[in-house]
Amino acid sequence: MLADKHILLIVGGGIAAFKSLDLVRRLREQGARVTPVLTKSGAEFVTPLSLSALAASKVYQDLFSLTDEAEMGHIELSRAADLIVVAPATADLMAKMAGGLANDLATTLLLATDKRVLIAPSMNVRMWNHPATQRNLATLQGDGVLVVGPNEGDMACGEYGPGRMAEVPEIIAAIDAALSDGPLKGRHVLVTSGPTHEPIDPVRYIANRSSGAQGTAIAKALAALGADITFVTGPADVPPPLGVKVVKVQTAAQMLEAVTAAGAADAAIFAAAVADWHVANAGTQKIKKDGSGLPKLEFAENPDILATVSQMKQGRPKLVVGFAAETQDVVAHATAKRLRKGCDWIVANDVSPATGIMGGTENAVTLITDAGPEAWPRMSKDAVATALAARIAKEIA
Ligand code: CTP
């Protein structure tokens, strides 16, 4: 896919700049041509020599270099590429891009280009979360700039959180997607995610430990393949992915309503951990300790959203994928669940506390299709999502 593609790579000044060297190598391995542009602060982290050696290209650094202008003007440089990639994209670079500044070669190229731009942000977690950076991000996305990452994790500065630059394979996947329409272009995929909250009274609820991480990662991976996503999410710990249509709900009943309202979909992925029951006699006012004894909660069953959609007589998505969270006999229970609910695939996982999967960053799943169970190795939830999205694309593209 990347053969003969021309990438203009702007390397900003951040500790993640070292990953850009590997990015250049991997891009070239796949047949891409890379022209590096190194910012002044980028040159504090990587040398022009290493970049130029890996790229087998001249490294452009200076806006006012006469030789460069003689060889290739900055307008031409910014337009000769198929895609401009900024990695790492620092908070400063993002701010300059959002503000339309052009006070060095990199920002001038970014302002002068008529090509798509993909940024891989990298910065301290507080800088990333700062309202100014989030505002700039929203502006850039509104301008059509593509974004990969940042990821959550330990950072070079010793803090933990979102801000780590996406890994090289993720950046390459995003470049691939940016340069192609994506196999799922024009496909509508519905994804449910997160827990549901079932009220006991206006201030209390019953919930489960789902963080929404796996559903969010799946929506993100499908969007990267070009799908239009409707993301119906309960109150999750992780923020919804960018670039998808988000519908926030609290209860299972609201989730069913949102799923039904989402319209025809080519595929539906039910990653939400929907509560099985709601409190039938939920208080309309806060239940008080009034001396009349302990409250007696009565439960009623929630609608089974996955089964409802799987068994639709009309307008059933071509592919319906359920999840099975089990704590014992995982494959047997999940296989039975697939038949009982009528979905096409079940992604089964063991959520017993010892696995650390619920609320954690990794997952070990077994994909159950009509061909039987297929155990996948334990990997990050992002990697599970990428692999699942690729399988879904094969099925419905
Ligand atoms: N699901 C759903 N609606 C419900 C319950 C579950 O859509 N009311 C979906 C989940 O999103 C998941 C699948 O059904 O894709 C299986 O969820 P799980 O909690 O593992 O199974 P249950 O159907 O709740 O069965 P059990 O509690 O008996 O394991």
Which structural traits does this protein have?
24% strand; Rossmann fold; binds cytidine-5'-triphosphate; 8-stranded mixed β-sheet; alpha/beta
Describe, in plain words, how this protein is organized in 3D.
The chain has 14 helices and 21 strands. It has helices at 17-29, 48-55, 66-71, 74-80, 91-99, 105-112, 125-129, 131-142, 168-179, 213-224, 252-261, 305-310, 330-341, 381-396, and strands at 6-11, 33-38, 83-89, 116-121, 146-147, 151-154, 160-164, 188-193, 198-201, 204-206, 228-233, 245-248, 267-270, 277-279, 299-301, 319-326, 345-350, 362-363, 365-369, 372-375, 379-380. With 397 residues, the chain is α/β, with parallel strands linked by helices. The protein has 2 domains: 6-180, 3-Layer(aba) Sandwich (Rossmann fold); 188-396, CoaB-like (Rossmann fold). The model has no long low-confidence stretch (mean pLDDT 92). An 8-stranded mixed beta sheet has the order 12-11-8-13-16-17-19-20, sandwiched between helices. The chain has a 5-stranded parallel beta sheet with strand order 2-1-3-4-5, sandwiched between helices.
